[in-house]
Amino acid sequence: MDILDRAVGKWEDIVHGGGEDGGADNCSLCQEFADEDCEKCPIKLDTGEIMCDGTPYKDWAAHHNLDHKQPHVPYKIQEGCEMCEELAQKQLDYMKLIREEATNG
Ligand SMILES: [Zn+2]
Asked: What is the C-alpha separation between 12 and 16, in angstroms, rounded?
């Protein structure tokens, strides 16, 4: 599934390429599924919850909201912040898992 490759690629870029997380604006899964309340999104199928509840994404967003005083996207890894790196890596790992599950059924 190409959209899963692009979703993983977004997080590869955030972790390794200094890329930005624009939330739904640069998430291929959101663009495909958010209009239908995430109903068929592979993340919703995994967690049973919408809006990425139950995923590491919530910790990533909360960290920016609370610790970096950034109330909304875009988020990116702040220079020298180990927590940013750790949380972005967790979300990347999670996206890879979702891709694997979707590919293997
Ligand atoms: Zn940080």
From this structure: 6
**CB burial readout 60-84, b (16+ within 10 A) else e:** bbebbeeeeeeeeeebbbeeeeeeb
Distance between Cα 10 and ligand 1 center (Å): 18
* Spatial CA neighbour of 91 closest among 27, 25, 34, 2: 27
Average pLDDT per consecutive 10 residues, the chain (105 residues; last block may be shorter):
94 98 97 94 96 97 98 97 98 97 81
**For the chain, domain boundaries:** 2-104
Residues near ion ligand 1 (CB < 5 Å) are 78, 81, 83-84
CA-nearest of 53, 54, 3, 45 to 26 is 3
Predicted local distance difference test score (pLDDT) of residue 104: 81
For residue 53, how far is its CA from the centre of ligand 1 (angstroms)?
20
